[in-house]
Design a protein that fits this description.
By secondary structure, the protein is an all-alpha fold. The chain has 5 helices and no strands. Helix 3 runs antiparallel to helix 5. About 5% of the residues have low confidence.
Length: 216
């Protein structure tokens, strides 16, 4: 299993939040659909070639027919391998897109908790900031009490806990990318003919008008 070695401890929480939301799961999902569509097209071509190869076999029972069918089989094999790779790429992109969405969801949850914590501490330092006189008085008393007890102070240990949660999310996402990359299949090398060069092409039967002379 591949492991992400980025030291996220030096990255501020706000920047980690920006980085994870810069990932575009929608584009990855769209790319996955493109690879899957390509696989379907290649599979259809492979199926057509297979039917054609099998259909001509009974009527071309010769050495040339054997060569032709062998070449066709190589082409079909290459197409099938390419389609398999395309589907693998689609699966990889689906996996990374899901990992991105999960990381963004978790990071948003931690960010909301962190913001609520900081807002509460900020509220304790704003004496009597409620909506009307009576509630403003009660809120002021509450704020004074928290100032006396020290509850208005931001706890660096608590902030570090939020940072560590963010770091864990980023490491998990990085590992997801690395793991699928490690299992990414290579595009298979094409097997089959790359050109057809007809030999002794006859456009008409020997002796017909315009036909080349038959060898003597």
């Amino acid at each position: 299993m591949a492991e992400n070695r980025t030291d996220w401890a030096d990255i501020p929480f706000e920047l980690m939040h920006q980085i994870v939301h810069a990932e575009d799961a929608g584009r990855q999902q769209a790319a996955a659909r493109g690879w899957r569509s390509l696989a379907e097209t290649v599979e259809a071509v492979s199926a057509n070639l297979t039917r054609y190869r099998d259909r001509v076999a009974p009527d071309w029972n010769s050495a040339a027919g054997e060569v032709f069918r062998g070449e066709m089989t190589d082409v079909i094999g290459s197409l099938d391998s390419a389609a398999h790779s395309a589907r693998s790429y689609a699966g990889i992109l689906d996996t990374t897109a899901a990992a991105v969405l999960e990381a963004q969801r978790k990071m948003d949850e931690v960010s909301a908790q962190r913001s609520a914590y900081l807002e509460q501490k900020d509220d304790y330092n704003n004496l009597g900031d409620d909506n009307d006189t009576w509630h403003d008085f009660l809120d002021g008393v509450d704020d004074v009490v928290h100032n006396i007890t020290g509850d208005n102070d931001i706890d660096p240990v608590r902030l570090r806990e939020f940072d560590q949660q963010g770091e864990a999310i980023m490491r998990h996402l990085g590992n997801a990318y690395l793991n699928v990359e490690a299992g990414r299949p290579a595009i298979p090398q094409y097997q089959g003919p790359v050109a057809v060069v007809p030999a002794n092409l006859m456009v008409a039967a020997p002796g017909a008008p315009g036909a080349p002379s038959a060898p003597g």
